[in-house]
């Protein structure tokens, strides 16, 4: 009963900007070394999995966690040339979808609490409007707004050492939910497809490095890399550089990486595989419950099937059908100029 009362008090309090500011200030005060850790990782080798995947302290610059993930809002501010302390910027009143969501799952509580919501495309906007009555701002693939961690000289040097690259994105864990699949079966498919490529580069999600899931790929002799920890402000910059190294991209499930790599004209292939999501805690159970609501499962299965059918052929060419579908879901035609994005964020 007491816990329920506390929850109700917090739910009322978080509607206010003052509460959100105090909450973030307190949390950040407990992680004073966060900027130093980020700076250290910014110059780390993109193949240094232990360093880039190591835990980071919770340091919320923005009230809605999704804005902190992958450094997305941090990078959008840089692109739009907005000072984070600008009084016109509703710092704790913006919500954004931190990755592509296939199907009609919407974080309704966050959208309703926020003054403004950002997302990729009309594909996502229709679901957000339907669930909340709010119309989000569309800005296309977030990876467009970052510079890339490696400059052209460094990128060329790494590319020369790797040669032709088959970049692989395995299904990854999310929060307190682990992704489980047959790695042997997936690697047999990689072996089948790697002819003509000098390097198989596997991009491991930070959580799966901590879980030890990278070891199987390591034993296969593949080169491993990672975009870094979820809270790393330069995650997207690192991911952009990793994608630019690729000549071909393959994965065993749908995900944000498909649209991001298509955006940079990298052909994609999805090897459809059974992937089980296993909750590792109560929060994981709650996450899975939201993902497996009947209406969510229906739209998710429908749209995932569309992606699987469209990207089920291993080819070095991008078809118009593939480009059009990626544009529809990730919003390639929704890209904003610095001035346009600034107007959205300060409005």
Element layout with pairings:
Layout: H1 2-13, H2 17-29, H3 34-42, H4 49-53, H5 65-68, H6 72-79, E1 94-96, H7 108-113, E2 116-119, H8 122-132, E3 137-138, H9 152-162, E4 165-169, E5 177-180, H10 183-193, E6 199-203, H11 206-211, H12 214-219, E7 223-225, H13 235-244, E8 248-251, H14 256-263, E9 268-270, E10 276-279, H15 282-291, H16 294-310, H17 320-330, H18 338-346
Parallel strand pairs: 1-2, 2-3, 4-6, 4-8, 6-7, 8-9
Antiparallel strand pairs: 5-10
Helix pairs in contact: 14-17
Description:
The mean pLDDT is 94. This protein is 48% helix and 11% strand. The protein contains 18 helices and ten strands. The longest helix has 17 residues. Helix 14 crosses helix 17. It has two domains: 155 residues, no CATH class; 179 residues, Rossmann fold (3-Layer(aba) Sandwich), CATH 3.40.50. It starts with a helix and ends with a helix. The strands form three sheets. The protein has a five-stranded parallel β-sheet with strand order 7-6-4-8-9. The protein has a three-stranded parallel β-sheet with strand order 1-2-3. It is α/β, with parallel strands linked by helices. 37% of the residues are buried.
């Amino acid at each position: 009963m007491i816990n329920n009362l506390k929850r109700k008090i917090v739910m009322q309090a978080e509607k206010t900007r003052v509460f959100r500011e105090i909450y973030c200030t307190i949390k950040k005060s407990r992680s004073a070394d966060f900027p130093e850790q980020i700076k250290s990782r910014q110059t780390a080798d993109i193949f240094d999995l232990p360093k880039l995947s190591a835990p980071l302290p919770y340091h919320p610059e923005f009230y809605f966690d999704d804005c902190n993930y992958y450094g997305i809002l941090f990078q959008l501010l840089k692109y739009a040339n907005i000072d984070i302390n600008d009084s016109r910027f509703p710092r704790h009143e913006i919500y954004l979808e931190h990755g592509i969501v296939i199907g009609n799952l919407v974080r309704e509580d966050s959208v309703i609490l926020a003054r403004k919501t950002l997302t990729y495309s009309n594909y996502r906007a229709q679901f957000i409007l339907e669930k909340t009555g709010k119309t989000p701002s569309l800005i296309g693939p977030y990876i467009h707004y970052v510079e890339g961690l490696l400059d052209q000289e460094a990128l060329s040097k790494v590319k020369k050492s790797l040669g032709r690259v088959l970049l692989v994105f395995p299904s990854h864990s999310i929060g307190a939910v682990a992704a489980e699949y047959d790695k042997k079966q997936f690697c047999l498919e990689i072996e089948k497809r790697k002819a003509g490529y000098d390097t198989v580069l596997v991009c491991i999600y930070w959580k799966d490095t901590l879980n030890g899931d990278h070891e199987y790929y390591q034993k296969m002799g593949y080169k491993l890399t990672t975009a870094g920890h979820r809270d790393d402000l330069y995650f997207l910059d690192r991911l952009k550089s990793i994608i630019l190294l690729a000549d071909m991209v393959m994965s065993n499930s749908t995900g944000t990486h498909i649209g991001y790599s298509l955006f940079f004209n990298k052909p994609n292939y999805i090897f459809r595989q059974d992937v089980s999501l296993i909750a590792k805690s109560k929060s994981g159970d709650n996450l899975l419950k939201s993902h497996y609501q009947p209406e969510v499962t229906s739209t998710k299965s429908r749209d995932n099937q569309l992606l699987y059918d469209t990207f089920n052929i291993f080819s070095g060419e991008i078809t118009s059908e593939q480009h059009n579908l990626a544009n529809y879901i990730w919003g390639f035609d929704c890209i904003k100029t610095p001035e346009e994005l600034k107007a959205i964020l300060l409005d």
